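#onboarding

Welcome to the new folks! Below is a worked example of what a typical request in this channel looks like: someone posts a single protein sequence, and someone else replies with the predicted structure as tokens. Don't worry about understanding the tokens yet, we'll cover that in week two.

Example request:
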Amino acid sequence: MPPSPLSPRIAPADDVQPAVPTRVVIVDDHRLVADSVAMALERADDVTVVGIAATAAEGLALVREQQPDVLLLDQRLPDGLGTDLLPELIAASPSSRILLVTGSDTDDVLRAAMAGGSAGFVAKGQRASALLDAVRRAAAGEMVVSAEDMQRLLPAFLRGKPRLGHDLTAREKDVLRLLAKGRTTGAIAAELFIAPSTARNHIQSVIGKLGAHSKLEAVAIALRENIVVAE
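Example response:
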């Protein structure tokens, strides 16, 4: 018999709500592999697979529909590369964390994945426990990158980082050289045959581009970074 509307509500023990499982989408054209991964993940109480797609187009539609917490994205799909699909996937579901699944962990692939907004990499052939750990870490907001991959990627990213002062114009470098010689704004204007207001604008631009707060700090940074040479 159902309880009377006047009966008090009996709260569950400790009134604890069950944790919401991490929702996962798998995009892989090898159905047997995808099904095996799904079965392995769903053995855990805190993970549920909400869909499997076999192509980039199907994957994009599925992600847009399901808005998963984590997406396991194969790099090589019949209609494109996973790394090429990253911008569209992120636009379709900004909160999804994307793990690139690849058997080709070349530097180019890893760099493209990181630059495209991937949360990390999963090597094909990993044990189910390692895959589950990667999904949990991604869902928690962690980057899933091994120490070995990080050592490979870091030098490449540093090499690709623009050198400080790379965006200084020729005129701004002239102004910086004169600042390093101790010239005043008026002296710089006279020496470069420009108006004092133009000299001030160049100086402010130099300070901003070097991330400095004053003319003196801009000169110190320029000397330290070998943008100009002390004379």
